[in-house]
């Protein structure tokens, strides 16, 4: 029997979290770190100076709530050759700078390893884009949990492409093929799948290969989905792909329960435009379920021609809207800045729309009763937040794993109306796939109008929303999953402590 002291010590888990330096990965992994702290784990989040402002206010609030959580700041590697503070990949980050931030992130290895030696955590949770952190954990003999962005479904679909290569057996980019081996019969075209599957020596292929290898070598993965949302794909990932996994979402509503958390999540001064945001008063003046919310996440910067089509499509649809528009750089303006200013004045005058420049308090907006639907690029975080808010979606995938997520929303779950985008693009190179205003207006109309099909979609998403809320309550699937993981980590720590005692004895 273990001594009481050892058992007590094993109860106190110390963890280090290392989020990636892009808003899209940073925001959810910080949320995940916070749910561990809520369950009594001592949490340190490691990041660089330029990323702290994105989440520090929520860490301070958690700490005041009595959670054992803090941020540890390490230097952004100067070898990457970037000006001070340019350390976060966001929508407006130029591609060459984003490569350097990527490089800087991989150069964090030395500092991170030293930190592990100094702090001696019991486990680490690191983003998928730090494959080297498997070895760093191995050096200390502790588990590395990999944070995998995206849905289980997307990872299963990509695994199907890798195993069976169905896209190599069709004659053209537009001919559809089945994704073999998955729980549902899902069809895609070659034009919808990521470039690394099609272009020889694609630069991202090596990155993803390293990610997959490190996933296999990790103790297991955490994802922020929930069982009722895509349980069959969670099982497939576990059994067919063979990775141990814990599904702990939706994390955003789990940790961001009060108004300040919701309003400030991911919001830093770089994204602010200095304009007074009076969206709440505006939404309060609108009827229930009457407003469509349009947002393309944290990393998408749409070309001028697409912004013009969206503006016109929104007006043509006749529905009220909130549209989140990224800051337009002077170099990318093409006259669209003036067009959008006039558009904003016009829709303000008619009271039909509200433009939010830069960063929107998305969680707070989605829960407003006036919001009746969402136009989304199918980023996993927005998808889950929208499902949680019981809202159907217009699906508008552009890059990354978004086309797979669209399949899940439209073909599997029946809670999305496709806008009709057909072509996967490299990040922020969307000029060749401009969705036309009439298609945008039509999809929004299908989303916001009445009718039996629409009512059915709303019933389905409401059932999922109820399930999402149950999942994070004591006894719910995600709650249990997190508890199981923590218990397993405690028992690993206990075994390690006992081995140490035996060696000393
Ligand atoms: N987000 C936000 N305000 C914005 C844009 C994004 O709060 O103006 C948040 C959103 O709530 C979500 C995340 O940023 O949690 C974006 O993640 P998603 O997976 O939807 O898209 P990505 O940025 O990864 O493409």
TrEMBL record:
The keyword Transferase applies. InterPro entries: UDP_glucos_trans, UDP_glycos_trans_CS. The keyword Protein transport does not apply. CDD domains: GT1_Gtf-like (cd03784). One of its GO terms (molecular function) is UDP-glucosyltransferase activity. Belongs to the UDP-glycosyltransferase family. This is Glycosyltransferase. It comes from Canavalia gladiata (Sword bean).
